[in-house]
Structure prediction request, 386 residues.
Amino acid sequence: MALFEYFPNYIWNLSVAIALESGGRIGEIVDMCQPIKDAAASGADAGTPQFMAQWVRVADTLVSLADEDIAKGRAISASEKLERAALYLLVAERMQGHGSPGREETYARALSIFAQSTDLGKINRERVEIPLGDGSMMSALYTRAPGEGPRPVVVYCNGLDSCKELLYWSRLPEALARRGVSTLCVDQPGTGEALRLHNLPVDPHSENWASKAVDWLETQPDADPKRIGMTGISLGGHFAPRAVAFEPRFASGACWGANHNWREVQDKRIRREGENPVPHYWAHVFWAFGATDMEDFLAKSEDMNLNGRMDGVRVPFLVTHGAHDRQISVQYAHDCYAQLVNSPRRELKIFTEREGGVEHVGADNMSYGRDYIADWFAETLGGHTD
Prediction:
């Protein structure tokens, strides 16, 4: 496999890969991981407090160094360090079980540092809030493509265990902006701020919240309401196809990893078939779905199945998947593609050893999925690829 495998278990290695692909520095990552290499040998769950302690330690150093830059008037350099500090804190937080000591404080601090980095670096992302219609809201990061007049926009959603900041660090918003397309990275219910700060659980019917993102974009003068696309990463490979199938205002769609029948994946995980994305997996999904126990969770996830629903997609749609995804079977990509019978332009892209990106959502190399999806939306929403 192409994943950088520093630890003896997949889940810890996945976190390292996320950090590397999101802008982490190899020297800092080795510095954080060396003291906890033995702790990983006890399994994915046991050593997560030690994991957080080491990653917070390096984040603290970066914040201190950024403060020195700020004192010298070096805002850009400070922003660079704060980006990595926020990243390391979010990766550390992601590894903890729900209710673990320090998790809430680490998340809150990461958001604060991320916002400070945005301001200091004048980074092209604005935190916005999207009303969900029931008194609650969905936070998002809006990255605007350059140019005058209304531009096409892609709504980009999380998987099970990601957040809008990690979506931004996947660099898809940057790749789309270079092609003339804006991006709205959302913390939809069950993820990021929606789950952690507002207790909003997963809604399997993604059109409910995705439609609210379209409503909001229709009020923005720099967004073209006729050229709005939708994509999602990992479990977003369920949410995005479903939203496009049920929300006719989307003009194009793509999934970064095809989660065609995630309910079935849970049966496989009960049988310990395939890898989990996070430690404390069952506690995490119970929390994300607002479930009390396994029976309740399985009932609430029953609709996480796209079979019989993809014929509602009547716009261009791209399905991507890694050939050696250890979490989600590549067969689901073929299933999703085969059922896009009413799409006027459908495409299936399986990333192989020839280019890379063979692991789950390209954890080994996100550049190929990022560029392929960015080109797709440029072509189908009226951006440019040159």
